[in-house]
Amino acid sequence: MHINLSADKRYYSIGEVAKAFGVNASLIRFWDSEFDILKPKKNAKGNRMFTPEDVKNLQLIFHLVKERGFTLEGAKTHLKEGQKKTLDKFDIINKLETIKAQLLSIKSEL
Fold first, then answer.
1. Could you give the CA distance from residue 55 to residue 61 in angstroms, rounded to a whole number?
2. Phi/psi of residue 68, each to 5°?
3. Is the dihedral of CA 66, 72, 73, 79 positive or negative?
4. Residue 67 CB-half CA count within 13 A
5. CA dihedral defined by 50, 90, 78, 36, rounded to 10 degrees?
6. Number of neighbours of residue 70 by Cβ within 10 angstroms
7. pLDDT at position 94 over 90
8. CA atoms 87, 92, 93, 99: torsion sign
9. Beta strand 48-50 with 12-13: parallel, antiparallel or unpaired?
10. Helix or strand or coil: residue 80?
């Protein structure tokens, strides 16, 4: 899953994150309350501001819950038991998807 957020920003609003994932902001707020791995900062108004690391963790949660069909409890357990291993696999999958997209782009130009 490719999230279209600018790589040079330090913080993203909940609206930007929700739009990037194609979900409601309420789901992002719910996941924030359910998953300890998410640690968004809050600005002076109390609005959540997500770091690139939070976005990466949200991608992982989205992958587990929405794409692989994990329950919330199952996703929490999976993250706690094998967080490093899961993140490594997820990074590899993302890199392979990027390479595939680049190769398809090159192929279409031939």
1. 10
2. -100, -5
3. positive
4. 10
5. -10
6. 17
7. no
8. positive
9. antiparallel
10. helix
Cβ neighbours, 10 Å, residue 100: 10
Among the listed residues 41, 37, 18, 42, the one whose alpha carbon sits nearest the alpha carbon of residue 28: 18
Q: Is the pLDDT of residue 39 over 90?
A: yes
More confident residue, 91 or 40: 40
Cβ neighbours for 13, distance < 8 A, ≥ 6 positions apart: 47, 48, 49, 50
pLDDT in tens, 8-33: 788 999 999 999 999 999 999 999 99
Q: Which amino acid is it at 37? A: I
CB 32 within 8 A of CB 12: no
d(C-alpha 77, C-alpha 82), whole Å = 8
Contact 47, 14 (CB under 8 A): yes
